Amino acid sequence: MKRKRRRSRPDHREGDGGDEHAKEATAAPADICDDVLLSIFSRLSTRDAFRCAASLSKRHRQLIAGADFWLLHRRLSPPPFRPSMAYMVTVVEPKPPSDRPPAPLLDLALPRCAFRDFHHLTGGGNDGGSLRYSLVDRVHLRHKYAGTCNGVILLAPKTFNGGAPIVLFNPAAAGSEVEARMELPDLPAKSGRYRVAGFGYGASSGVYRVLVTREERVVSPNETVKSYAAYRARELLAYTLDGGGAPSADQQRLRSVLPEVDAKKIGGKPLFLDGKVYLLADHSRVLAFDADDETVAAIELPGERPPGNQHQRHARSNLIEVSGRLCVATGAGALGDDLALWLLAAGRGEWVRLCELRWCGAISSKLAGAWDVGGVVLLHLVHRQSKTGYLHMYDTRNDEAYRRLNFPRMVAKQGGGSGRVMCWGYRPTLVSPGSIVGAPPLGRRGAGGALAALDPMLERDVAAGRERTLEAVCFMNLLLYIMSKLPDNPLDVVNEIKGKSLPFSLR
Q1: How far is CA 65 from CA 49, 60, 68, 75, 160, in A?
Q2: What was the pLDDT predicted at 3?
Q3: Which DSSP category does 179 fall into?
Q4: Of 406 and 106, the one with more pLDDT
Q5: How far apart are CA 184 and CA 216, in angstroms?
Q6: How many other β-carbons are positioned within 10 Å of the β-carbon of residue 15?
Q7: Which of the residues 42, 53, 124, 254 could staple to 72 if both were Cys, CB 3.0 to 4.6 A apart?
Q8: How many CB atoms lie within 10 A of CB 176?
Q9: 34-38, 303-307, 368-372, 476-480 — which one is most confidently predicted on average?
C-alpha cells in the first residue's frame, strides 16, 4: 500500500525570519479608506448598493446608512432609464354600524386600524426594481402624509395644539417605524392651531427639520354660531429633530423662520429637493425653505391670471417632481381652461414652460401627476366633482398634443385617487428613522411586511388592507405599463385605450 507523499513545508526556525514571513502571509489585507469605499458604492445602482450593504462590516453598514452617502449616491449613480412612481394608499377601518349583528370574539378584540400601503414602482433601468411596504397602525388613525426626506416618510396629525406625536418609517427597512413627540407652546383654545407643512434635511448642519405653520382663527363680522371656522397661516416655524439630544447653545429646537405671513393655507403636499423644502402658499406662490440656512425665499408662480377670475386658483396642481426638478401646473388661456406645465430652473429661480394643453378642462379638473418619459409627457388628471381620472399626452420633441384619453368607467373611478397620495421626491435609502429622533423602533405593533407572518392578527389586517387598496394599486400599475410603451410608441397607447385593449386589471 502506497503512502501519501507529504508536501514539504519551509522550516521556520528561530532567528531566520521564518515567523515574520508567516505573519505577513496570514495577515489580513489593509483596510480600504472609507472615502474610497463610499466613492465606489455611490456609483452603483440602488439595488446593487442594497445588496452590498448586507455583506459589509458593521462599521461600513453604518456609513452606508448615513444620509451623506445617499446624497452622494444621488449625484454619482447612473440615472434611471424611466421615471419612477412613489405613492401611499391609506384606508381606515370604518366604525361598525349599530344595527350590525354581533361580531365574532376575534373581531371584537381587534380595534380600529389604519392601513397604509406604500409603493415605489420603477420602469426598469438602474434604480433597483419595485418596493412595497405595508403598515398597520392602531394608534395614529388620523395621521396624514407630511413629506419624505432621504427615503424616510413622515406621518403627522392634520392639525394639533401644543405637543403632537409623529411617526417616521423607512419603506426599505422592515420594522423601522419610530414614534417621537414634538413639543410646541400651547395656543389659546379654539383660536389657534398648528399644522405640519414639510420635512427636510440640511447636509451641512446634518440635522432634520420639520416645518410647522401657526394658524389663527379668523372671525367674520357676519359670522353665525354654526358657520365654518376659517383659519389663516400667520407664522412659519422650523422644529429641529436632533436625534433626541439637547440642542446646542446656538441652535434652538423651535425657531421662527417666517414670522410675518398672511396666507389662507401653506403646505398641502410639500416637496424636498436638493436641500430645500418647497411649499405652495395660497395656490399663487412657492415658499422655498433652505434646511441649512433656515431662510425662506418666495417664488411667484409663472403665467398670468385671466382678467375677472381673481378668485380662481392659479395653481392647478400640488407641487410635483418631473425629471428631478420642481414642477407645477397653472391655468392658461383667456378663460383659464387651458393647462400649462412649468419647471423651475436649477439655481436661477426662473420658470421654464414644459408644455401647454388647450381645452383640457383645467377649471373642473386637477393635475394629479406628470411624468416625462424620453420627451413624451404623460399627464394624469382627476375631475373635481366625479373623482374620475383621465390622461393626456404631449410630445415635447415636436410640440404635438394628443387628444384626451378616457378610460372605461370602472377604470376611471380607480384613477380618482381616494386615499392615495403621491410621495414626490422619494428616493430609496437605508437611513434609519431611529437615528433621526433617537427612538427605538415600534416593533411588531406597527410593522407590516415580513413581521406580518409572525402575528396572525397582523397578517389578517395586512391581507384585508391590501384587498381594499387593490383598485388603486391596479391603476398605478396601469400607468407604469403605459410608460413602458413610451416614448417610442405613443400612438400604440392611444389605439389601445380607444380600443379598450389595455390590461385594465394588472394585479
Answers
A1: 11, 9, 9, 16, 32
A2: 52
A3: E
A4: 406
A5: 15
A6: 6
A7: 42
A8: 22
A9: 368-372
Query: What is the separation of C-alpha 340 from the centre of its chain, rounded to a whole number of angstroms?
Result: 24
In this structure, what C-alpha cell is assigned to residue 284?
Answer: 399663487
Helix, strand or coil for residue 289?
Answer: strand
Is residue 406 within 8 A of residue 150, CB to CB? The reply is no
Query: Among 87, 115, 83, 124, which Cα is nearest to 368's?
Result: 87
Task: Tell me the one-letter amino acid at 262.
Answer: D
> Which candidate, 273, 280, 386, places its Cα nearest to that of 322?
273
CB within 8 Å of 52: residues ≥ 6 apart = 41, 44, 64
Within 10 Å of residue 438's Cβ, how many Cβ atoms? Answer: 13
Backbone angles phi, psi at 60, to 5 degrees: -70, -30
Say if CB 193 and CB 231 are below 8 A apart: yes
- Return the closest-CA partner of residue 83 out of 317, 327, 306: 327
Cell of 430: 437605508
Cα angle 395, 400, 405 (rounded to 5 degrees) comes to: 80
Helices (H), 342-405: none
* Whole-angstrom distance, CA of residue 309 vs CA of residue 229: 25
The string of DSSP letters for 323-340 reads TTEEEEEEEESSSS-EEE
DSSP one-letter string for 47-113: HHHHHHHHTS-HHHHHHHTSHHHHHHHHHHSPPPSS--EEEEEEEEPPPPPTTSPPPPHHHHHS---
Band (pLDDT 50/70/90 cuts) for residue 54 is low
Distance from C-alpha of 336 to C-alpha of 326, rounded to nearest angstrom:
22
Could you give the CA distance from residue 402 to residue 456 in angstroms, rounded to a whole number? Answer: 50
- Give the containing element (helix H, strand E) for 394: strand 389-395
Instruction: Provide the mean pLDDT of the chain.
Output: 79
Closest alpha carbon to 156 in 164, 194, 435:
164
pLDDT band at 411 (very low <50, low <70, confident <90, very high): confident
What interhelical angle do 456-468 and 470-484 show, nearest 10? 60
Q: How far apart are CA 469 and CA 421, in angstroms?
A: 12
Q: What is the DSSP letter of 319?
A: -
Q: Compute the average pLDDT of residues 330-339.
A: 83
Query: Please, are residues 141 and 134 in contact by the beta-carbon 8 Å criterion?
Result: no
**Cα–Cα distance measured from residue 275 to residue 153, given in angstroms and rounded to the nearest whole number:** 16
**Global pTM value:** 0.84
Q: Residue 249 in 3-state DSSP?
A: coil
**3 state SS of 461:** helix
Q: Per residue in 443-468, pLDDT tens? A: 544 444 333 444 566 788 888 888 88
Whether 278 and 269 have beta carbons less than 8 Å apart is answered as no
